[in-house]
Amino acid sequence: MSIMNIHGYKGAPHNAAYSALCGLEKNIISPEIDYDSENPEVILNRLLDICAAEKIDMIVGTSLGGFFASVIAAGLHKPLLLVNPCLQPQNVIPALGYDGDAGWFAKTSAAFDELDTERVRCIIGGKDEVIGDHAYTKELLGIERIIVIPDGMHSGSTLDLEKHFPEMMREIF
Questions:
Q1: Which of 121, 116, 125, 126 has the alpha carbon at shortest distance from 165?
Q2: With contact defined as beta carbons under 8 Å apart, do 21 and 77 qualify?
Q3: CB atoms closer than 10 angstroms to residue 31
Q4: Segment holding 140, helix H or strand E
Q5: Cα 23 to chain centroid, rounded
Q6: 3-state DSSP helix/strand/coil % of the chain, to nearest 5
Q7: Cα(129)–Cα(151) distance, rounded to whole angstroms?
Q8: Which residues contact 162 (CB under 8 A, 6 or more apart)?
Q9: How far apart are CA 150 and CA 148, in angstroms?
Q10: How high is the pLDDT of residue 23?
Q11: Which CATH class is domain 2-172?
């Protein structure tokens, strides 16, 4: 099985999700993305090219990477794991220093209408200091598809992904 792991804004390819996935002995493709220097449409197209070249079976996205992962999963009809996803980045990342085209995210989020939510699972921190209460994520996916870690923060390292990823993957395959 080939899995694409998409890290978040100012994150790194070898993030907590990557570490949890490596423990499952899968083929993990985790590209490095500089969200500040690349146009978001260029990033999306590069990720789609990787999906085709690597024959990706599942997508994992953390924070802003969760936005891209969701758009890709919707278009390619792939299973999706989300970690503290930033699904409305136009409302979040400008405050984090992003000065790119935040409006692109609002327009592109229409792709979420095509998400097969039965094949999506999500884990969020109950004390996420970046996204907040994840109200939009809960509304979009339905609370039954989300694991809330009460004391978890925005960092995936606070969410015990090694424990939860195997069960989440069984549910979507």
A1: 121
A2: no
A3: 15
A4: helix 135-141
A5: 19
A6: 45, 15, 35
A7: 11
A8: 19, 20, 23
A9: 6
A10: 87
A11: alpha beta
First to last CA, the chain: 11
Write the pLDDT tens digit of every residue in 123-171. Answer: 999 999 999 999 999 999 999 999 999 999 999 999 999 999 999 999 9
Backbone angles phi, psi at 62, to 5 degrees: -115, 130
DSSP string of 8-74, one letter each residue: -TT--SS-HHHHHHHTTT-EEE-----TTTS-HHHHHHHHHHHHHHHT--EEEEETHHHHHHHHHHH
Domain residue spans in the chain?
A: 2-172
Residue range 17-55, pLDDT digits in tens: 999 999 887 799 999 999 999 999 999 999 999 999 999
Q: 123: which DSSP letter?
A: E
Q: What is the DSSP letter of 6?
A: E
What Å distances lie between residue 155 and 4, 79, 111, 140, 160, CA to CA? 19, 22, 26, 22, 10
Distance CA 58, CA 99 (A): 30
| pLDDT, position 26 | 79
Amino acid (1-letter code) at residue 69:
A
